[in-house]
Amino acid sequence: MSEALDRLRELQAGDLPVHGGRTLAYVYDSGLAEVDRVGREAVAAHAASNGLDPTAFPSLLTMENELVGFALDMLGAPESAVGTVTSGGTESCLLAVQGARDARPDVDRPRMVVADTVHAAFLKGAHYFGVEAVTVPTGPDFRADAESMAAAIDDRTVLVVASAPSYAHGVVDPVPAIAAAAAARGVRCHVDACIGGWVLPYASRLGRPVPPWTFAVDGVTSISLDTHKYAYAPKGTSLLLHRTPELRRPQYFASADWPGYTMLNSTLQSTKSGGPLAGAWAVVRTLGDEGYLRLAREVFEATDRIVAGVADLAPLRVLAAPDSTLVALATDGSCDAFTICDEMAAHGWYVQPQMSYAGQPPTIHLSVSAATLAHVDEFLEALGKSVMSAVESGPVAVDDGVRAFIEALDPTALSDADFDGLLVAAGLVGDAAEGLAVPERMAEVNALLDLASPTMREALLIAFLDRLQRPTRA
C-alpha cells in the first residue's frame, strides 16, 4: 500500500504545480488551503458512491440540486430554470449540442451557427452528433459578428452559440444581439460561460463593465459554467443550465428495451463517482457568496496589474482588453511567443502557447487565478526577463527543408514514416528503447507545428498522442 503511494508521489513530482498561483493554464487556484482540504475530503468521502441512480444515493441528488440552485441564483435565472451537473465543460457543451439536435427531429441534416472563436468542444459535439457547424469569422475586436451570425441562421439551424468569454482572447460576445436573432427564428441560443460563468457575475457586482450574457438576456435558452474553474472546486464538474425543464428534457436518455434495469441518464455518463460532485458542493458551501466576491476582487486585481505591467514591456501587447480573467499576449515580431513560454517555464511559471490562426499571430495565454495576486510582481519580473532573453535569441527559425517537408504532407494520408521523419526533425525521438522524448524546451516544436495548417496540425498531434499512449508492460 505505502509502496504504491510512494510511487504515486514520485510520479506526481514531474507534474505542473496545482497550487501557488504559478500555473496559468489547466488549473484554477483559490490560494486557500482550507478550501482545498475541504474539497479533497469531500471527494474522498463520496468516491465510491454512484451517481447512476439518485434514489440509491439521495445525498448526491440533494447536493446537485443545491449546487444548481446556487448557480441559478448567482445568474438571476427565472424560477422555471433547471440544471444538471456534468463531468466538465466539454460534456456540458456536448449536451447542449445533443439536446438542441434531439429537440428538432423534424430537421434533416441539422446545423449550428458558431463564431470562429467558439470552444472546440462544440466542434467535437458537431462531429459526434452529426450537426454541421457553420463557422462565422469574428470581427477585429475578436468578438462574434452578430449580423453575420444572424445571416447564417436558416431553416436547418437548431442551435446558435455565443461565448462569455471566448477562451482564446477573453472577450464576451454580443449576446443580446445573437440571442435576439436566434429567438426570431425559433432557435436555441446557448451561452458558453464555462470559464467565465462563476466569475463574471461577481465582476458586475464589483462595478466592472461586463457585457450582458446571462438569463437576463431574452433569447438565451441555456448556459454552461464550470465549477472546477472559478468556483475553485476539484476537477471534474460543470453545470448545464436551461431556462425551462422542457428545454432540458431532450438531454435525458432512457432505455427499457432490454432485459436488464431500465437505463435512465441525465448526462452522457451512466456510472459516475459522486466524489467530484461532493467536492464541488463542499467548496461552494464553504466559500459562499461573500467568499466568491472576495476571490473575484483578488483575481481581477491580479488581471489588471498584469495587463498594466505588460504595457511597460515594449515587445509585448495585450491582444484584446479582457472582459474576464483571460489574457492573450502577442509580440511585435522582434521575438516569438513560443520562446517566451519556454523562458517563463525556466523561471517557474507555466503559461500556455497558442498557435497562429487565420492571419492572427501566435499568442501567450494566461488564465489568471486568485492565488496569482500575491505573486504578480514576481510574474512580471519573470516575464520581463523572458522577453529580454527571447529578443536576444531572436524568433525561432525552422529549417527550410523541414518547412518544405511539412508543406508537402497530406494530412489525410499521414504515414508512420512521415511522422517518424517529423519526430526526428523536431528532436522528439530519444533512444530507440525509450521511444518519444519530450524536450524541456518546446519553442522549436511549437514553431514547427505553427507552420502546419490546422488540419495538418490535428493529424500530427493525433499521431503524437497515439505514440504517447502505449501500454507499459512488465
From TrEMBL:
Keywords: Lyase, Pyridoxal phosphate. The keyword Oxidoreductase does not apply. Its cofactor is pyridoxal 5'-phosphate. Pfam families: Pyridoxal_deC (PF00282). Gene3D superfamilies: Aspartate Aminotransferase, domain 1 (3.90.1150.10), Type I PLP-dependent aspartate aminotransferase-like (Major domain) (3.40.640.10). It comes from the Bacteria. Belongs to the group II decarboxylase family. Sphingosine-1-phosphate lyase subfamily. This is Pyridoxal phosphate-dependent decarboxylase family protein.
